[in-house]
Amino acid sequence: MYKFCVLLLFVLFSINVNSQSILGKWKTIDDETGEAKSIVEVFSKSGKIYAKVVEVLDLAHKNSLCQKCAGEDKNKPILGLTIIKGLSKDGSEYNSGEILDPKNGKLYKCALSLESKDKLKVRGYIGFSLLGRTQYWHRVN
């Protein structure tokens, strides 16, 4: 009976974490400095996942433009910029889209997954997922 209860709790916990939504506002943390950079809103549009910068926390960069970006994002304000585009759900992960790094203007492949209901794993990479970097974003209530 004890094993059954433990198994049931594990299954319920797994379902709860996996059923949580990645949608909402997240505080981005610089993986190099550990400092909060911005608030990003993750949203769904036409069955795909996107994210845009809704607040810049560093006052020195509040009005910065994406000068190194290419195409339609070139010289757009970082505030309001869509930085994640076109992710699709694949099991417990969202992938097959891109993430823009406004600091260097480069686009990377992207994967998102919930670590917990309030912690989002954001992986940007080139080619294979092994060649990239990971940030952890924290839900804003």
TrEMBL record:
Residues 24-139 form the DUF2147 domain. It comes from the Bacteria. Residues 1-19 form the signal peptide. Pfam families: DUF2147 (PF09917). Keywords: Signal. InterPro entries: DUF2147. This is DUF2147 domain-containing protein. It comes from Flavobacterium keumense.
